[in-house]
Amino acid sequence: MNVEALERAVPDPVRRLARRLEDAGHEAWAVGGAVRDVLLGRPTEDWDLATDARPGRVRRLFRRTVPVGIEHGTVGVLDGGVLYEVTTFRRDVETFGRHAVVEFADSIDEDLSRRDFTCNALAWRLATGELRDPFHGLDDLNEGRLATVGKAADRFAEDYLRILRALRFAGHFELHITPDTWESLAAAVDELRALSAERVREELWKVLGRTRHASRTLRLYAEAGVLDVLYPEMAAVRGLDDGEGIKPWDRTLAAVDALPPHRLLLRAAALFHALGMPAARTRDLRGGWRYTGHEVLGARLAADVMRRLKASNADTEWLARLVQHQRDLFPPDAPDAGVRRWLRHVGADLVRDLFRLRFALWRGTRVEGRPEDLLERWSMAHRALCSRPALEVADLAIDGHDLQALGLEPGPRFREILGELLERVTEEPALNERAALLDLVRSELIRS
Questions:
Q1: 331 Cα distance to chain centroid
Q2: Comparing C-alpha atoms, which of 426, 448, 219 is closest to residue 338?
Q3: Which of 319, 363, 321 is nearest to 346 (CA)?
Q4: How far is CA 306 from CA 9, 273, 292, 316, 337, in A?
Q5: Residue 448 has what pLDDT?
Q6: Beta strand 74-79 pairing with 82-88
Q7: HSE-CB of 181 using CA atoms within 13 angstroms
Q8: Under-50 pLDDT residues of the chain
Q9: Cβ neighbours of residue 105 under 8 Å, at least 6 residues apart?
Q10: Of 162, 164, 156, nearest to 96 (Cα)?
């Protein structure tokens, strides 16, 4: 691990902030994840500073500040449109669950002693190049270990979210959790029930949205019992056998890894896609298992999980729709009108991600159909989308005002006529012109 990499990686705004603090007679240390990530050779944008300057002093030293957590010693300093957190050294006076009573400290080592894991208890002083590592976090990183600062049981009891953070760090950085840390972590898993839904959701989103191989952390979730406590719907999927040589849980993890981290919700849909399988499982005539209708059940369960995590209504609805339609593809010999009718059924906004999910499930396991079939169907769907077909009544070249102009009274018959026109246009897209549709209404659809 090259300490010189820190000098090369630190952005200019952070240098300016640190220089201002040092010139004013204070210490300025880069701390936490940025130091760890750079020493691991990973890119980072999460630069925070720790200092012996008190919050009021920090606010006087910098022109543009935001009191983001001033009661805990944190001041946000704006530079170049980016907000950097500058936090006064702290020591814990009393800790219980999430909320700790802290007081300001005078040394960086005191501040580092309250960190969660040794790999996060690193500090680098920009002015002198000194690297502080009082808990041997570098040794742990070199050896591929994740260990707590001090007694593991105490660290987790201070904030049970650290259980999820430990599993995320271990999976993301491919670290082995030390036996004492794992034992204390597993013993405290049931305490996760006390965490807020928002904090649980944000941890899961970090697993899905920041880690290419999210499956490593998700497997640790399962091994530690986190799924049983926080996501029993997912825990039920483990151990199922789909009869095709790949277990649904393994297929789920493979599909998540096959999708890019920046598509967080799509990865969540892959993670939730099999939730309905346990409830839908029945024996087939050969004695194996079938899961007919699991998609509809899974959509309901996925929506339940999203609501429990207090996700937005829009995200919940989108994800549930994708889970419900995950296997809802048209046959490879479908006519063009059949593809357009399928687009209406699924929703054009879902089509591209539905195929992304199908390809991810295939790439992850290589057992679900032939890729040529999926590619051909995607080509057919893509061609249909590019033709911009009328997929809902609003896409028609006429509307209710035109029907009124023909002498029709508003009412249920309007919907019937417009629905019939949409069906005709689905079969013959060229009909979707105002004159043609009006002629069709006059000649065939107006009832005396």
A1: 32
A2: 426
A3: 321
A4: 38, 13, 23, 6, 35
A5: 44
A6: antiparallel
A7: 23
A8: 448
A9: 89, 90, 91, 111
A10: 156
Task: Pick the closest to residue 204 from 156, 264, 150, 252 (CA basis).
Answer: 264
Whole-angstrom distance, CA of residue 281 vs CA of residue 288 = 10
Q: Tokens 């996760």 identify what position? A: 192
The pTM (predicted TM-score) of the whole model is: 0.88
d(CA 91, CA 76): 20
Longest dimension (CA), the chain: 92
**Cα separation of 284 and 61, whole Å?**
73
DSSP 8-state symbol, 150: S
Name every residue whose Cβ is closer than 8 Å to that of residue 383 and which is 6 or more positions away in sequence.
none
The residue whose two tokens read 């270990």 is 145
Closest CA to 73 of 97, 103, 98, 29: 103
E strand residue ranges, 89-160: 90-96, 99-104, 123-125, 131-132, 145-146
> What is the pLDDT at residue 412?
86
Q: What integer pLDDT is reported at residue 408 of this predicted model?
A: 85
Q: Distances from the Cα of 284 to the Cαs of 11, 281, 327, in angstroms?
A: 61, 9, 19
Structure tokens at 304: 């339940």
| Cβ within 8 Å of residue 133, ≥6 positions away | 121, 122
Amino acid at 202: E
